[in-house]
UniProtKB/TrEMBL annotation:
<comment type="function">
    <text>Plays a role in repairing double-strand DNA breaks, probably involving stabilizing or processing branched DNA or blocked replication forks.</text>
</comment>
<keyword id="KW-0238">DNA-binding</keyword>
<keyword id="KW-0862">Zinc</keyword>
<dbReference type="InterPro" id="IPR020588">
    <property type="entry name" value="RecA_ATP-bd"/>
</dbReference>
<dbReference type="Pfam" id="PF13541">
    <property type="entry name" value="ChlI"/>
</dbReference>
<dbReference type="InterPro" id="IPR027417">
    <property type="entry name" value="P-loop_NTPase"/>
</dbReference>
<dbReference type="InterPro" id="IPR020568">
    <property type="entry name" value="Ribosomal_Su5_D2-typ_SF"/>
</dbReference>
<dbReference type="InterPro" id="IPR004504">
    <property type="entry name" value="DNA_repair_RadA"/>
</dbReference>
<dbReference type="InterPro" id="IPR014721">
    <property type="entry name" value="Ribsml_uS5_D2-typ_fold_subgr"/>
</dbReference>
<keyword id="KW-0346">Stress response</keyword>
<protein>
    <recommendedName>
        <fullName>DNA repair protein RadA</fullName>
    </recommendedName>
</protein>
<keyword id="KW-0479">Metal-binding</keyword>
<keyword id="KW-0067">ATP-binding</keyword>
<dbReference type="InterPro" id="IPR003593">
    <property type="entry name" value="AAA+_ATPase"/>
</dbReference>
<comment type="similarity">
    <text>Belongs to the RecA family. RadA subfamily.</text>
</comment>
<dbReference type="Pfam" id="PF13481">
    <property type="entry name" value="AAA_25"/>
</dbReference>
<comment type="function">
    <text>DNA-dependent ATPase involved in processing of recombination intermediates, plays a role in repairing DNA breaks. Stimulates the branch migration of RecA-mediated strand transfer reactions, allowing the 3' invading strand to extend heteroduplex DNA faster. Binds ssDNA in the presence of ADP but not other nucleotides, has ATPase activity that is stimulated by ssDNA and various branched DNA structures, but inhibited by SSB. Does not have RecA's homology-searching function.</text>
</comment>
């Protein structure tokens, strides 16, 4: 059969009549490859009678799509209650963040409650190395099967032989198919390996978790189509200098993508944190100038975060403005508002603003807490005990409303705080929570008065 030559992007699938170095659709470099295509006019495949007729939607069995708990509550929270039979989950993260440790713990806990074996395929480490890690974190189980393989056909043979209730492949970039040219981790290899594992998962209703590498810019390595093929894409995040790890879903066909799972990674293994507030609060028993607590939202999950500020005289012509865990642009804007609207002298001062415990507070709702912490540090006056501040600060000094105020109030009350400063706009619709005092404030001047750093106006 005669063919014509065409060119296709391996990232987005767009086609072109001639080769180009940069795809015109996704703007990726070096992804356009030559492929053969049937000549124009060639007939497509003939229609075949389906082996299973289409069913009315109300007669389709929905129980086969019910999520089953993995035994790790924080991961189940992100997945939407558990993992669905036949689902394929892609877990991506930076090297050394703890992906293998987490999934080995997931495999062990699933083996405790599963009716069949759990298969863990490692292509990056030897079986003895994985066994030592399992011993260290307490993940040794008699029905947890371990296979050190890098050949796709052999991996599929293990799945057919063991009939597992869960398969973990660490990682998809290390498995190669002998029928496809190229080395393991290449675009063609990753696509073929993922397609074969997805086909087995759907045919046998076996859930599969794939570990994926990331590039230096944080995106998942391999073809972009990999993220479209799988059912769930999870990002495993964390600073290697901090014990906190977070899992969030960027794609989830079986649930929402606004949940976050928190984990504590230590030498003894990885543990889910149902209440991670202890990591983000200093726990100081005395009020110290330059500190203020806020409640951030990670997806739908409220997270208490302590903001600390330090203002000291500068010996430099350009004073330092250092931030950690915060949006430096928003902090600079807040400092300008304090200097312009409140008359704080910050021009000749070095200003350092940071979060506690390596938390990341990037949303605008932390502006008010930053303003109170900096003002408290500049005037060397502590805030009132038990104060929490939530709100966005505008350039005019006004405090603007933000999302999820009610959930933040509930978390503040649960942690035992006494007073929450909230934006005046929309405060009338807020419901009281226990003995928590809700103080609506219109601008930063009122907020400072309510927090106890300056005398009240009027």
């Amino acid at each position: 059969m005669s063919t014509t030559t065409r060119y296709q992007c391996t990232e987005c699938g767009s086609t072109a009549a001639k080769w180009v170095g940069r795809c015109g659709q996704c703007q990726a470099w070096g992804t356009v490859e030559e492929v053969g295509a049937p000549a124009a006019g060639v007939r497509g495949p003939a229609a075949l009678a389906p082996s299973t007729p289409a069913q009315p939607i109300d007669q389709v069995d929905a129980e086969t799509a019910r999520a089953r708990p993995t035994g790790v509550g924080e991961l189940d929270r992100v997945l939407g209650g558990g993992i669905v039979p036949g689902a394929v989950v892609l877990m991506a993260g930076e090297p050394g963040v703890g992906k293998s440790t987490l999934l080995l713990d997931v495999a062990a806990r699933t083996a405790d409650v599963a009716r069949g074996p759990v298969l863990y395929v490692t292509g990056e480490e030897s079986a003895s190395q994985v066994r030592l890690r399992a011993e260290r974190i307490g993940a040794l189980r008699p029905n947890l099967l371990l296979a050190a393989e890098t050949d796709l056909a052999t991996v599929l043979g293990h799945i057919e032989q063991a009939r597992p209730t869960l398969v973990v492949v660490d990682s998809v970039q290390t498995i190669s198919a002998s029928t496809v040219d190229g080395s393991a981790g290449g675009v063609s290899q990753v696509r073929e390996v993922a397609s074969a594992l997805i086909a087995v998962a759907k045919r046998t209703a076996t859930p599969v978790i794939l570990v994926g590498h990331v590039t230096k810019d944080g995106s998942i390595a391999g073809p972009r189509v990999l993220e479209h093929l799988v059912d769930v894409v999870c990002q495993f995040e964390g600073d290697r200098h901090s014990r906190l790890r977070m899992v969030r879903a960027t794609k989830n066909r079986h649930g929402a993508t606004d949940e976050v799972g928190c984990f504590d990674l230590s030498d003894a293994g990885i543990v889910g944190l149902a209440d991670p507030s202890g990591l983000f609060l200093s726990g100081s028993l005395t009020q110290v100038p330059g500190t203020c607590v806020t409640i951030t939202l990670e997806g739908r999950r409220p997270m208490p975060t302590e903001i600390q500020a330090l203002v000291t005289p500068s010996t430099l012509s350009n004073p330092r403005r250092m931030t950690s865990g915060l949006d430096s642009a928003r902090v600079a804007m807040t400092l300008a508002v304090l200097q312009s609207r409140l008359g704080l002298t910050l021009g000749g001062q070095d200003t350092y603003v940071s979060t506690v415990g390596g938390a990341r507070a990037q949303e605008p709702a932390v502006d008010l807490a930053v303003a109170l912490a900096v003002a408290s540090a500049a005037r060397q006056r502590s805030l009132a005990e038990g104060v929490v501040a939530v709100g966005e600060v505008g350039l005019t000094g006004d405090v603007r409303s933000t999302v999820g105020i009610q959930r933040r109030l509930a978390e503040a009350a649960r942690l035992g705080f006494r007073r929450v400063l909230v934006p005046q706009g929309g405060a009338k619709e807020l419901r009281p929570v226990g003995d928590l005092e809700i103080w609506p404030v219109a601008d930063v001047v009122e907020a400072l008065a309510a927090a106890g750093t300056v005398p009240a106006r009027g």
